[in-house]
Amino acid sequence: MAVFTFQREQLLKSSIEMVWDFISSPKNLKIITPEYMGFEILNKNLPEKMYTGIIINYKVSPLFGIKLTWSSEITHIREFEFFVDEQKVGPYKFWHHQHHIKKYDSGVLMTDIINYSPPFGFLGALANTVLIQKKLKEIFDYREKKFNEIFNHR
User: Fold this and answer.
1) Would the pTM of this model clear 0.85, i.e. be above it?
2) Nearest 10 degrees: CA dihedral of 49, 111, 66, 90?
């Protein structure tokens, strides 16, 4: 099983409290997901703030408009520092996404680290080279733009 890593950093001109407040709310996922992905949270009565053990279920169309069910569990949280989501059901054989934030004089450094393994062995590794890496970059380019609009517009 090939495991790949995708990492992205972004400096936000905001307080760590404001950044944490935004990223720790499951309802804000839709705001930072490209519209073409048709992101839809399926949970009813989703809490305002995530907690360790919460399962978030959603539908998403990352490729070719094909709707997929994805379930993520928040497995670790350290308030104002990081949280980790892991795919329980979804398109990947393995998905582990770390969301880190760190306070600096100039703002907050947000770092995403994703370790993932596509399904289908060799074919999945080939799909990663041809398609998945580019799609992740595209999604995180969109997220960077949205976070700039929210936090760096001043």
Assistant:
1) yes
2) -70
- Looking up residue 36, the CATH number of its domain turns out to be 3.30.530.20
Which residue in 115, 144, 138 sits closest to 11, CA to CA?
A: 144
Output the CA torsion sign for 87, 90, 94, 95: negative
pLDDT digits (tens, 9 = 90+) for 77-115: 999 999 999 999 999 999 999 999 999 999 999 999 999
Three-class DSSP category at 138? helix
Give which of 67, 98, 95 is closest to 84, Cα–Cα.
Answer: 98
Work out how many domains the chain is built from and give that number. 1
Please name the amino acid found at residue 140: F
In the Cβ-directed half-sphere of 103, how many Cα atoms lie within 13 Å?
8
Distance of CA 103 to the CA centre of its chain: 20
